[in-house]
Automatic annotation (TrEMBL):
Its EC number is 5.3.1.16. The active site is at residues 8, 129. It catalyses: 1-(5-phospho-beta-D-ribosyl)-5-[(5-phospho-beta-D-ribosylamino)methylideneamino]imidazole-4-carboxamide = 5-[(5-phospho-1-deoxy-D-ribulos-1-ylimino)methylamino]-1-(5-phospho-beta-D-ribosyl)imidazole-4-carboxamide. HAMAP family: HisA. Pfam families: His_biosynth. Keywords: Amino-acid biosynthesis, Cytoplasm, Histidine biosynthesis, Isomerase. Belongs to the HisA/HisF family. Its main location: cytoplasm. It is found in: Cytoplasm. This is 1-(5-phosphoribosyl)-5-[(5-phosphoribosylamino)methylideneamino] imidazole-4-carboxamide isomerase. It comes from the Bacteria. The gene is hisA.
Amino acid sequence: MELYPAVDLLEGGAVRLRQGDFAARTDFGDPLALARRYRAGGARWVHVVDLDAARRGRPVQRDLVAALVSAVAPLHVQVGGGVRSAEDVEALLALGAARVVVGTLAATDPGALRELAATYPGRVALGLDHRGGQVATEGWRSTSGQAASELLAALAEAPLGAVVVTAIDRDGTLEGPDLAGLAAVLAATEVPVVASGGVGSLEDLRQLAALRVGARRLAGVVVGRALAEGAMSVEEALAACASSE
């Protein structure tokens, strides 16, 4: 199970939100310094979200994303937030992102995501953000009314690099991941699944690494607050992610 340390960008700094609430933020300073700390700890990926772009629906911090990609090379960078068009995907890949996460566009126009995945096989991910199994959009401010299982079925044949599943009600809470919800996604898709939301301890990571649905297991996990606050080190998190191998 791959570790994806998270760097969320807001107004030029690194932050973490609680349950997607912009009024409930914790600041972690320089995002480049945070990302370099993750690289020094041995991480192979960094998960970057432009929260300003997610909130406004247009590019906001492309220059900072580009600087971050350069700062952590040769790490792979997975980028999301406010990706609402093919042009957004193309621009982020051109900046050096290894994979681009698409959420709102996927929910509103699954056909567009299928085309993007076919154009850039393995380099486009579905951002499956949900509250209680209902897909959320527009920076988590709206709920589409669409069930997560319906969106997965609509994209079943798309050559996606991953499905990044975020349980919004758990995100930034450190209260543990949504194991049942993740198991349901593993059962519903053959695409690699990356878990996000709620990880607060090494035991949470061990439980995720041990999760199985038949022969299916999680491909990765996004960890934000627990790493940024120092509840665990990158080295410890990597060991926990590999604990079931």
